[in-house]
């Protein structure tokens, strides 16, 4: 059952990742990326990491992808890039998904190295994060602040230069 | 959980992301390719954590996600700037750094 779910998620992840790369319209890339991240979240859930699954779906599939969509829509970037390959995009995506599912199935069959999955509770992770890793946690807050200030000053100084 | 399958899946995902970075000319899709590579690395790290039965790996993945979020914000800011000055986000025109 677990292996079957793993194979199903593999198909979704690989085919939608290929569709991200092959899509002509960037909006389709973003939507396929959301599907890909939902699949990865499902895998995390399968491996007993519910906290990571939730964070991955919310942060990656939610926040970052909405950021991409906003940039596309605000700058009117959804120009369609002409490509002679784009006709084959759905076919190539599904074929990639099928081939990687077959590869994973071969790997599952050939090296049955199963490890027991134990669910890691969010409480345990929180204790570890705020006790042992509180330093890196605070440092990441500084990183975010630096990123925000950097982006804002970058775009504002460019605005001044332009006008 | 089976580690061999995870290795195959992560290799596929990282190769697809690398293809996106190398082949596409659209900067937006190139950034998405980088995100795909990061996701492949995250998958491997979570699998290693399950394999050795420790939760520190999940925290490491959590920090990688934080850095990826900051990286996406800065990358998109640069992209918006580039679009403002050049009216395009294709890397075809980005040759004036050649000297």
Can you offer a commentary on this structure?
By secondary structure, chain A is mostly helical. Chain A contains six helices and no strands. Helices cover 79% and strands 0% of the residues of chain A. Chain A is flat, with a radius of gyration of 20 Å. Chain B is mainly α and 99 residues long. Chain B has a single domain (3-91), classed as Helix Hairpins. Chain B contains three helices and no strands. In chain B, α1 packs antiparallel against α2 and α2 runs antiparallel to α3. The longest helix of chain B is centred in the C-terminal third of the chain and has 31 residues, at 56-86.
Return the average pLDDT of chain B rounded to an integer: 88
Order of helices and strands of chain B: HHH
Count of discrete domains of chain B: 1
Distance between the termini of chain A: 62 Å
Element-by-element helix/strand order of chain A: HHHHHH
Biggest interface: A-B, 74 and 61 residues
Please, how many helices of chain A?
Answer: 6
Strand portion of chain B: under 5%
Annotated CATH topology of chain B: Helix Hairpins
Low-confidence stretches of chain B: none
Total strands of chain A: 0
Number of helices of chain B: 3
Helix share, percent of chain B = over 70%
Q: Sum up the overall morphology of chain B in one term.
A: elongated
Low-confidence stretches of chain A: none
């Amino acid at each position: 059952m677990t292996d079957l779910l793993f194979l199903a998620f593999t198909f979704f992840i690989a085919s939608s990742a290929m569709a991200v790369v092959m899509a002509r319209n960037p909006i389709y890339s973003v939507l396929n990326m959301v599907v890909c991240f939902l699949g990865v979240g499902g895998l995390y859930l399968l491996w007993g990491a519910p906290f990571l699954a939730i964070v991955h779906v919310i942060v990656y599939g939610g926040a970052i992808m909405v950021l991409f969509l906003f940039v596309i829509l605000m700058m009117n970037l959804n120009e369609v890039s002409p490509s002679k390959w784009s006709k084959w995009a759905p076919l190539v995506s599904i074929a990639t998904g099928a081939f990687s599912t077959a590869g994973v199935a071969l790997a599952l069959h050939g090296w049955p190295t199963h490890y027991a999955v134990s669910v890691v509770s969010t409480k345990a992770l929180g204790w570890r994060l705020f006790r042992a890793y509180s330093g890196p946690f605070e440092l990441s807050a500084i990183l975010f602040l630096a990123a925000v200030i950097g982006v804002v000053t970058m775009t504002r100084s460019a605005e001044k230069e332009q006008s | 959980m089976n580690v061999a399958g995870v290795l195959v899946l992560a290799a596929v995902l990282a190769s697809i992301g690398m293809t996106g970075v190398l082949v596409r000319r659209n900067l937006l899709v190139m950034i998405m390719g980088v995100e795909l590579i990061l996701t492949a690395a995250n998958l491997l790290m979570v699998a290693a954590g399950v394999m050795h039965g420790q939760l520190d790996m999940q925290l490491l993945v959590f920090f990688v996600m934080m850095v990826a979020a900051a990286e996406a914000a800065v990358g998109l800011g640069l992209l918006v700037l580039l679009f403002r000055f050049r009216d395009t986000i294709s890397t075809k025109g980005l040759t004036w750094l050649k000297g």
